[in-house]
Amino acid sequence: MSKLNVEQLLLGSDPEKVKQTEGRIELNASKVDVIVQRLVDDYARPLDEYIDVCKQIITDKQNPPTDEELDDMCMTIPCYLYFISEGQEALGLREDVAKAIKMELYNNTYEQATGTIADKTATAELASQHEFIIHSCYQRAYKQLKMKYEIGLELLNSIKKVIGRRQNALNLTGRAHN
Questions:
Q1: Model's pTM, two decimal places?
Q2: Among 88, 100, 70, which residue's Cα sits nearest to residue 144?
Q3: Which SS3 state, helix, strand or coil, does residue 149 take?
Q4: What is the pLDDT of residue 5?
């Protein structure tokens, strides 16, 4: 359905029904968010907490990060990224299993259903709705961990550039004095 058709449909809809549907969406989405956040936090909480500390150090304009702090970040972030990648692998495996369970239930239900193809499809989709949502939770958690890994890697590379610039500045200052 095109965007224009959706807008026309909503404009002609009962505002109370739209609010009820939005309420259902928010309620169910918040439940999914809780599951996804729990899955992600199991693997990412230490990195998240460390990046919060790094952010405080980096954004403190009164006290720029010391060389020791930057070195610590360069040594610590890869350790946390290691565990993030381990979590990605674990969530990827669980996502595969969730997908297999969802498809097994869908296919078995479809096979046993009677009626037209549309009837069978509707019956199978309804029967596997819970498994579909669980599979989606694992997909989203995997994507979030992947994103956190990539952002952590980007932060690490940025810190290395700062260290490199500082070293170059020291080398230039040392040469100027010779």
A1: 0.81
A2: 88
A3: helix
A4: 61
